[in-house]
Write a structure and sequence with these properties.
The complex is a heterodimer of chains A (609) and B (286). Helices cover 21% and strands 43% of the residues of chain A. Chain A is an alpha+beta fold. In chain A, strands 23, 25, 26, 27, 28, 30 and 31 form a seven-stranded mixed beta sheet that branches. Chain B has helices at 2-21, 30-51, 55-74, 80-92, 96-109, 114-125, 138-143, 145-148, 152-176, 179-208, and strands at residues 130-131, 211-214, 218-222, 231-236, 240-248, 253-259, 261-266, 269-272, 276-279, 283-285. The N and C termini of chain B lie far apart (54 Å). In chain B, 38% of the residues are buried. Chain B is globular. A five-stranded antiparallel beta sheet of chain B has the order 9-6-5-2-10. Chain B has ten helices and ten strands. Chain B is α+β, with helices and mostly antiparallel strands and 286 residues long. Classes of the chains: A alpha+beta (609), B alpha+beta (286). At the A-B interface, helix 2 and helix 3 of A face helix 1, helix 2, helix 4, helix 6 and helix 9 of B.
């Protein structure tokens, strides 16, 4: 409680009752994605009832456990003993705003002792998180403008530069379960359809995210992505609430491997990062009236139809089942019954409908099977008429009509069928048993195809014996490679030290070219840079800190002998003068400087610890 | 870097695995196939003559078939079908001991073949001695299928496959840190232990514990390696033995064997035959 100092307070006070409201945020300003704790503190001489906090628009409110304190005081004045009790109850609420801007916590009301007490309203400002590039959230829609009931996909991408630096996290995905104005795929089906490799906890549900590595603004990120399909049901502009990722991110840590090759990360310094996704709106437009066919029943997408009848020969009044299957991309649930072109001399009944839908890549596919029961009423019926199905294709932005059939059928006059005679269940049965007459061996094998030579024993083959240690050796080599790669990636000092020699050689090669072209000043600058950057890389210090004057102090106790250090200092001084000297030096001196620098780098490379 | 190293490691593993898988059973020479056909023809002709009641001619043909099958084996082609057919020819010639030996050899190369099992059972049924070969329960045979249902090459191949796959999973896990690979690695390690143990026991039993069959009509089992030792009991043609020791005497070679038969110890009391010494000519090793 002492940690939650009231930065803002509005007090409603009576002689005996104190009712205050406060938040834990300085200046009542907070970052989107973060939560604020609101405290309603009631102090009274008697046990107070709970206060009432009105609903706050655009804010998720979670009630936290309250704290109660009772204090007693006894006073004796002139021998008169007086005992009094004081009750303090702190009611706490966690408020999580879902949008940027300002919102007001309205007055909370406490009715106590026949009186009503109110706190002052508190205005809270919700601002965007501090810019950072460790974690970036991006929500990408497959389309920004869609027709009603046209499927589209929202994809959340979380870019994290160093996932191993995240200790704890919470991810808020407002459209995980439902999105106002849209129908989305079933949550369980959605989760089971995902093929992601990493499971993240999103609002107490494990969601598999796909992962890949990518570059963004020259920086490497691991991208975690998940996409969900939606079908709009309301026309208008729909604002998609932002996704919020909050985590404890280690900015400084010790990263190493133990002898078993297990990675051990110990945090030294960490910060809380709140990343929110971009603002996003989806515009939903109605279907056009122009060209709407009479058979259109609301299907939007790309569909096909197939149908068959069974049986194809019946008597008048007997049922024929016309089974039609509409399948394709779109919201299969909204697909209505296909219609017969005419129903003359036919009696029809709608039968079963079976719907099946699933995700196929980035689209929802489905099929709907309709069973239409048709009873021909006359022997004049020679065919079941065509079946017609109309839908709107958002890709071509026009209505399309599909037909299937007609289906030839033979209709015979109605007749009574003869009764089927079934054999009585106790009809006599006969059984005979087989008797073994003679024991003998089975015949020979005659197929030469079975005649492989099996004399070679695999376990005796030298190639088998010699290659047995190979997998173990490979495992050890891979472990070593992995450790080296990890160390190069995480240990800057080690990486710089390892790469110092090759970098210095490159710089000296550049210097050699400059010497050949006669650019003496540039040559001296290049040699100077090669030497200072080599020492800086080896010692893991900034290159600017290595100078002819500082090098003695820096290399003391680091391995090189005094003579080498003195030579280095002298060479650096030569290079410093060479950069600013007006007179040209003879070629031998230039060569000597280059040779000396090269020898120094070799010596230092061996001796610096 | 990580992908390259992983790819190289996996390619290396695949190459070695392919090398191992390549031709564990070598190709048979054309003359062996020709001999096999001739032997089969001789056997079929013998069977036809036997059915026609010409027993004398039939025996000649069976002997011809036996000689041809033996020639295939002596020229270096060892195959279960040849051994099985040879066993059949010897069975027809009344050589039950030799027939059982060759059925057992065929069974080691093709342990799942039902025809071999059937003929071995039939041949054993004609052995004069009461056989005491323990057959484990079918549950254990299923559980230890690697031992009971695979031949030595198949068991070795499975063990090696598990070993290389295990290594591949571990290498993959080192670079990718995927839980699936770790779990697969653990599963493969368990399989490797199972197959490795079965293969090891199989190699020991089939290669380092010699077994054989009595191929003479009556074989005295003596207390010691020499004619001077008393006969302890007698076993007969077709009885299988485990060879425990070998001793070369002044004139003959002697084998210490434990026959896999039941003998009558005293009136009405049966027991497993104790170990004893037999002449080496009386036993044909598998």
């Amino acid at each position: 409680l002492t940690a939650l100092l009231p930065y803002s307070a509005a007090i409603a006070q009576d002689e005996e009752v104190v009712f205050t409201a406060s938040t834990d945020k300085p200046d009542n300003t907070m970052v989107l994605g973060d939560s604020l704790t609101l405290e309603l503190k009631v102090s009274a001489g008697q046990e107070p009832p709970p206060p009432h906090l009105p609903q706050i628009d655009g804010v998720d409110v979670e009630v936290l456990p309250e704290s109660r304190f009772v204090s007693s005081s006894i006073s004796i004045i002139n021998g008169k003993r007086t005992e009094s009790k004081s009750y303090t109850v702190v009611y706490r609420y966690r408020l999580t705003p879902t949008a940027l801007g300002k919102f007001t916590i309205p007055s909370a009301t406490l009715v106590f002792g026949g009186k009503s007490y109110k706190t002052q309203p508190i205005t809270v400002t919700v601002v965007k998180a501090i810019p950072q590039d460790h974690i970036i959230l991006e929500v990408i829609p497959s389309k920004r403008m869609v027709f009603i009931d046209e499927q589209f996909r929202l994809t959340l991408k979380i870019y994290i530069d160093r996932p191993h630096c995240i200790r704890t996290y919470s991810l808020k995905l407002p459209w995980l379960r439902e999105l106002q104005g849209f129908v989305s795929e079933d949550l369980q089906k959605f989760i089971s359809s995902l093929r992601g490799g990493v499971k993240l906890i999103v609002e107490n549900t494990e969601i598999p995210f796909e992962t890949k590595t990518t570059k963004r603004n020259g920086k490497t990120y691991v991208v975690y992505s998940v996409g969900k399909m939606f079908f709009p049901t309301e026309i208008g502009v729909h604002k998609i609430p932002p996704c919020i990722f909050k985590c404890d991110y280690m900015t400084k840590y010790v990263d190493r491997y133990n002898i078993f090759g297990e990675r051990i990360i110990k945090p030294i310094k960490s910060q809380t990062i709140i990343a929110t996704s971009n603002d996003l709106s989806i515009t939903v437009v109605p279907l056009p009236d122009e060209g709407k066919p009479p058979y259109f029943s609301g299907a939007v997408g790309q569909y096909k139809i197939e149908a068959s009848i069974s049986p194809s020969s019946v008597r008048v009044g007997d049922p024929v089942t016309l089974t039609a299957r509409v399948y394709g991309y779109g919201n299969i649930a909204s697909v209505g019954w296909p219609k017969l072109e005419n129903e003359e001399n036919l009696r029809t009944y709608e039968g079963n409908v079976e719907t099946h839908s699933q995700r196929e890549g980035a689209r929802m596919v489905g099929s709907k099977k309709f069973s239409l029961i048709i009873e021909p009423q006359s022997t004049q019926v020679k065919e079941i008429p065509r079946l017609v199905f109309a839908y709107f294709d958002p890709k071509d932005v026009r209505y399309k009509t599909l037909t299937v059939g007609p289906f030839p059928i033979e209709v015979k006059p109605a007749e009574r069928e003869p009764a089927v005679v079934i054999a009585p269940p106790n009809a006599p049965r006969t059984a005979t048993g087989a008797v073994l007459l003679k024991r003998d061996i089975l015949p020979i094998v005659t197929s030469p195809a079975l005649l492989a030579n099996q004399s070679d024993m695999l376990y005796r083959k030298p190639v088998v014996l010699w290659t047995l240690p190979l997998p173990l050796a490979l495992i050890v080599i891979c472990l070593l490679i992995r450790r080296r790669v990890e160390r190069l990636r995480t240990d800057t000092a080690y990486a710089r030290s390892r790469q110092a020699m090759s970098a210095a050689r490159k710089r000296l090669a550049e210097a050699r070219k400059l010497a050949a072209s006669g650019s003496q000043k540039e040559f001296h600058a290049a040699v100077y840079r090669a030497l200072t950057e080599f020492v800086a890389d080896k010692l893991n210090v900034p290159p600017a800190s290595v100078t002819a004057q500082s090098v003695r102090e820096m290399l003391a106790y680091k391995g090189p002998d005094e003579q080498t250090v003195a030579e280095l200092a002298a060479c650096l001084e030569t290079c410093e003068y060479g950069q600013f000297a007006a007179a040209e030096k003879p070629a031998q001196e230039i060569d000597e400087t280059l040779r000396q620098a090269s020898a120094l780098i070799k010596k230092l490379g061996k001796s610096i610890r | 870097m990580r992908t390259n190293a992983l790819t190289s490691a996996l390619l290396c593993i695949s190459a070695v695995a392919l090398l191992l898988l390549a031709a564990p059973e070598s190709v048979v020479r054309a003359d062996a196939i020709e001999l096999f056909k001739r032997a089969n023809d001789a056997y079929s002709e013998a069977k036809r003559l036997e059915a026609a009641g010409e027993r004398g001619e039939a025996i000649k043909k069976f002997q011809e078939a036996e000689a041809l099958y033996n020639r295939i084996l002596s020229e270096g082609t060892v195959n279960w079908a040849v051994l099985y057919n040879l066993g059949n020819a010897q069975y027809r010639l009344g050589k039950i001991g030799h027939a059982i030996t060759n059925y057992r050899r065929a069974e080691m190369l093709a342990p799942r073949n039902p025809d071999i099992k059937a003929n071995l059972k039939q041949a054993r049924a004609e052995v004069q001695d009461k056989i005491s070969i323990h057959q484990p329960h079918s549950f254990f045979r299923t559980l230890l299928f690697c031992y009971y249902s695979l031949n030595l090459n198949e068991a070795t191949l499975l063990t090696l496959a598990c070993y290389w796959l295990f290594a591949a999973c571990i290498i993959g896990y080192i670079f990718l840190r995927a839980r699936l690979l770790r779990n697969a690695g653990i599963a493969l390690l368990l399989l490797l232990v199972y197959f490795g143990a079965c293969t090891g026991v199989k190699i020991y039993k089939e290669v380092y514990v010699p077994r054989g069959t009595v191929v003479v009509e009556e074989c005295p089992v003596r207390f010691g390696p020499g004619e001077e030792f008393d006969v302890r009991y007698k076993i007969h043609e077709g009885a299988e033995v485990v060879v425990l020791d070998e001793r070369v005497g002044s004139e003959k070679r002697w084998l210490k064997v434990r026959p896999l038969v039941i003998i009558e110890e005293s009136a009405g009391k049966e027991t497993r035959a104790p170990a004893g010494w037999v002449r080496s000519e009386a036993v044909e090793l598998f």
